[in-house]
Each structure stands twice: as C-alpha cells, then as structure tokens.
Amino acid sequence: MIPIGILGGLLLLAAIIRMNPPEAPQRAAFTGPMMSVETLPVIARDYQIMLQSYGTVQPRTRSILIAQVGGQIVSINENVRDGGFFEKGDVLGQIDPRDYEANVQIADATLADARQALAEAVARSEQAEEDWRRLGNEGEPTDLVLRIPQLEAARARVKSAESNLSKAKLDLERTSFVAPFAGRVLRKFVDIGQVVGLNTQLAEIYATDIVEVRLPLRNRDLGYIDLPESFRFMDVKPADTVDVVIRSDLIGDESWQASLVRTEGAIDESARQLHVIAQINDPFGRNNVGRSPIKIGQYVTAEIEGKYLSEVLVIPNNTIYQGTYIYTVEDGILRRKDIDIAWQNDAEAVVASGLKPGDELVTTSLGQVTSGIRVSVIGAGGEGGGRGPDSGEWSTDQSTEETEQAEPRQENDSARGQTPRANQGGTAQ
After folding, report:
1. By 3-state DSSP, what share of the chain in percent is helix, strand and coil, each rounded to 5?
2. Runs of H (alpha helix) within 138-195
3. Of 62, 90, 63, 96, which Cα lies nearest the Cα of 77?
4. What is the rounded average pLDDT for all residues in the chain?
5. Confidence band for 217, pLDDT divided at 50, 70 and 90
6. Buried b (16+ CB within 10 A) or exposed e, 314-349
7. pTM for the whole thing?
8. How many CB atoms lie within 10 A of CB 100?
9. Class (C level, CATH) for 69-96+179-206
10. I need a labelling partner for 369 at 20 to 30 A (CA). Which of 12, 35, 55, 379 fits?
11. What span, in angstroms and rounded, lies between the C-alpha atoms of 375 and 379?
C-alpha cells in the first residue's frame, strides 16, 4: 500500500502542476528613445571658397651661362658657388684676355693701314679729275678715268678693318662673364685654371626677383574660381589676379603671399588637369630676412581664393556618410536624407540639394542604425534620453532588434565597427 500511495501522490502533484503552469512576468514594450545624439541646426550663410593645390617652386627666369670665346679661366667671382647670390652687372668670371688684347691691337693697325690707303685713293682720284680738265678733254670723265673703283675698294677695306676691330673688342669684352640679372647660382660647372672652348657651359643661374609655382586644379573646382585668362588682344589686368597663400613645413611652418598670374593654354596630358601659375614676388628680398629662404624645387601647398558664395548650406564632412547621405532629427525621429554636394574640401561640404535651412543635422557618429528610430537630442530640455524607465540602462532587447533591421553598410567598415564617411580629400580628377 505504501508504494501505491507514493505513486498516487506523485500523479496528483503532476496533475496539479499541469493545471497551474508557472507564468513569467511580462514587461511592457519599450516606447522611449533608443539613443542620444547631438545635432547642429543647418543655417544658410555666406561662404568663401578656398581651393587646395600643391606644386614645386621654380624660377621664372633660368639661364645657363655659356662661354662665347675660348681660353683659360683666370678668375672666378667668390659668389659663384652653388647657392651664391650676385647682382646685375657683376663679373662672374674671367678668361685670359691677352690673346684678345693682341687681336685688338692687330685690328687697330689694320684699320690704320686701310685708312692710309683710302687717303691715297682719294688723292689719286682728285688728281685724275684735275688732269682731265687740264688736258682740255670735253665731256664728263668716266669712273675709270677718275679711279672710282679703286676709291670704293679702299673705302670697303676701311669698313672691313673697322668691323674686324669691333669684333676683336667684342671678343675681348666677352672674356668677362657678366651677370645679365640679379640672381643666384644653381650649379657651377667650371673653375679657375680650366680651359674652356666656345659654347662651353659655365654655370646655371636664375633670377631672384620672382619665383613661380605650377598648381594643378581639380576639374570640379574650375567653376569656383575666376581664372586669370588672357586672349590674343587682351592681357590679364593686375586687378584680375587671384590671391594665393603658399605654405611649406620643410623648415618649420612658413607661408608666402602669391598671386595667380596666368592660366596654361592646354590640359596636362598625363594628369588630365588644368594648371595655373602662381608668382611670389621678391622672395629673397629684405622683407624676408630672418626666415628660411624658399628653395628651388621645394614642395609646397597652396590655398587659392575662390568665389564668394552667398546664402549656401555648409556642413562638416564627418556628418556625411558614403558621400551621399546624412541624418537629421525630426520630432524625435531619426531621418536619413540623400544630398547632392556642390563643392567639398577636407573639412566642409557645400550642399546643393537635399537639405534646407532649419534642419537638425546629426553630428554624432552613428553605427549601424536605420531611419525611423526614436532618438533624443543631447541638451534638449536638459535630458540625455535613451534610458529605460526602471533600470536606468539602455534597452538592450529593443536595440538588438533594431540593429538586426539596419540597412547594410560596406563590409570593411562594418567589420571594424566604423561608419563610412565621405571622401574628405579626394584625388583631383
């Protein structure tokens, strides 16, 4: 009877449990905000376009000194060294002038002989005419009678001797290498004691009054700058030039004021870009004493003043996702909006369409979220929002459900937990 009683009790207990199953407490569905975000009101404002470019410094005037006569170099100016400065008219070097001085003396003597022969020819011509008249001949004497051909030949020999003397003096003058402009030495090819011949390269020099920087412009930037264009019968006016700031961090942070002076007449075939030329005036002058001098071949960046836009919408680049859309908050709801970008630099973008003044632009970096979820704006009403009513923590179940419904992102960015951003710099097209 005991085993039967135990079995009956167990059956009764099982029946009671089956008729009264345990019930889990159900929590009400979460209806509060999922997350907190920061926003920025979109305001139309005036905006100065500043284009970015780069290039290397090059001299506007560059020359190679070439020997116009041959001989041994007997002296070199102490400033004719790589990097040395010189002024216009300075003698940069000297070829042994003794041979050319002798040639001048020889040409001078030849000229004296030619002039003496001319004087004799003139006297003979006059004597011939007098003899013609004295003998009573009628009519005008012929040129042969008056010895005109001999007289013209004597005059031609004088002119030839004068030309030889001028050439000899010019060759003597060319034994001195005179600076054609105020400049600086890039490279020196010869030195004292070296014998050079005609057309031997002596040094490479450049003028220091102006240096230039050749700057490429992105094709999408061409509509936002007034290019200094010139036409066949019209030059660029000084008032039409565009201001440029040239910067370099080669030796500390240095900057130079420059201006765009001309636009190249062809598209670069390799880069498929248009180039403009910026000039820096007097970069080695007294106003720049005490700072690091600019170097030829130095890599620099440039900020070019573009057009001034009125009443445009400008937003930070870090609020743009994949270069095509942004998020706004409307009545506590997160909304995704597609936008068109008119112009963009490394930090900001000018929006052509998709936004309007007064929109609340989300500046918080968002992960994988979808449009339509409830959010709270940080600082609005003094509340942070996004917390559960009881525990004070994030609503984990609801957040997980919304994350699973989120729109797909780029695989690489999702794997890193990062949000794709707009191309902030971009290569020039």
Report:
1. 25, 35, 40
2. 148-173
3. 90
4. 82
5. very high
6. bbebebbbebeebbbbeeeebbbbebebbbbbeebb
7. 0.67
8. 19
9. mainly beta
10. 379
11. 12
Report yes or no: 66 and 201 within 8 Å, Cβ to Cβ: yes
Report how far apart, in Å, the C-alpha atoms of 277 and of each of 22, 187, 217, 303 are.
84, 25, 11, 13
- What is the full DSSP assignment across 359-393? -EEE-SPP-S--TT-BEEETTGGG------TTT-S
What CATH architecture does domain 35-47+311-416 belong to?
Beta Barrel (2.40)
Q: Is 228 exposed, middle or buried (0-12, 13-18, 19+ CB in 10 A)?
A: buried
Average pLDDT over residues 138-153: 86
Task: Return the minimum-mean-pLDDT range out of 14-23, 154-163, 362-371.
Answer: 14-23
Number of CB atoms found within 10 A of residue 404's CB:
9
Domain limits, the chain: 35-47+311-416, 52-60+207-309, 69-96+179-206, 98-174
Specify whether the CB–CB gap between 204 and 220 falls below 8 A: no
Q: Are strands 195-196 and 340-344 parallel, antiparallel or unpaired?
A: unpaired
Total Cβ atoms within 10 A of residue 282: 12
Q: Is the pLDDT of residue 407 over 80?
A: no
Which of the four pLDDT bands, split at 50, 70 and 90, describes residue 409?
Answer: very low
| CA–CA dist 355, 353 (Å, integer) | 6
Residue with structure tokens 């410094």?
Answer: 57
pLDDT at 346 over 60: yes
Q: Which CATH superfamily is domain 52-60+207-309 in?
A: Efflux pump adaptor protein, beta barrel domain (2.40.30.170)
